[in-house]
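Project standup — Tuesday

K.O.: blocked on the structure for the chain from last sprint. Re-posting the sequence here as requested.
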Amino acid sequence: MAARGAQASASASRYQDFENGRTGLRLARGRLFAEILRVNHFAILAAFHLRKPRLAHVFAHHKFMLIQASAADELDEATQDAVAAVDFLTVLDAHMQFYEQLAEAGRAQLGAAEEKRSKD
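H.V.: unblocked you, prediction finished:
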């Protein structure tokens, strides 16, 4: 119980330090890193959170995270609410199907590009 109180106190202190400008926010550092590398900061944040650096490479240049948010933003409010109500496993399954279809399209494009290079 005392450990939880100490953690809460430390967290509150860190937040106060941030509010008062005494410390930086890691999010700002992530954005700066993304800006320097000219990649999408959402991908870097997701990769950092999941501890999977390869995800940043896969998603950063194509801005998949931003595209998903933009696509959801295009939906009307009722549709957004319906999507938000879907359980996690259904969302995961839908994303897996989506990425499989996207990978098929990517393989076709890679094959076409390779065929074009071999003809040139």
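K.O.: great, moving the ticket to review. The chain has two domains: 2-75, 86-120. The helical segments are 2-19, 26-37, 41-50, 53-60, 64-74, 77-84, 88-119.
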